[in-house]
Amino acid sequence: EPEVTQTPSHQVTQMGQEVILRCVPISNHLYFYWYRQILGQKVEFLVSFYNNEISEKSEIFDDQFSVERPDGSNFTLKIRSTKLEDSAMYFCASGNGRAYNEQFFGPGTRLTVL
Amino acid sequence: AQKVTQAQTEISVVEKEDVTLDCVYETRDTTYYLFWYKQPPSGELVFLIRRNSFDEQNEISGRYSWNFQKSTSSFNFTITASQVVDSAVYFCALSEAAAGNKLTFGGGTRVLVKP
Asked: Which of A66, A108, B14, B115 is 20 to 30 A distant from A55 in Cα terms?
């Protein structure tokens, strides 16, 4: 069964460094998402992406964040200059926009900013 | 704007007891979708059940059942005869109907099932 994959599973970085989190969505899906979960808290929407552009973003998704679908298979989230408070689990999801708007989640990337 | 509230932060039960998780939602849309996800200690999000706003029929799937009531904007979830492996955080989520819409999650309820 097709699944969403994410790499790396865990990334440790120094404050101020740039990080790129990678996701491979399910191949025939059209909608792509990033969510964030700070440890012990709820899952929060960051951004959705459709037809090669951002369709919606939350107030969390400020100028430090960007997303890209560089090659038709990968979907990346870049954080330009990481802060301590960016430490979280980042989930990628994809969907086909059909029944139930169902989204399929990847296993997550745990980002630790020191 | 959409909002999901899970008032219970943590529930502790003994194995074989039933567990009911409460979820209350807010949305202006008349068409929307509701979900329950499980997050075990390993951290991934596991899809459990879904419902659309036009179908208030309550169902049972194995040890899981749900009670959807539009009149009270509630979508409660029950685990029957709980097992230790059910220990996890459970999230209720809402998506409004337009294609590609985001999921809005509740704060989660931690369930601890003791042997």
From this structure: A108
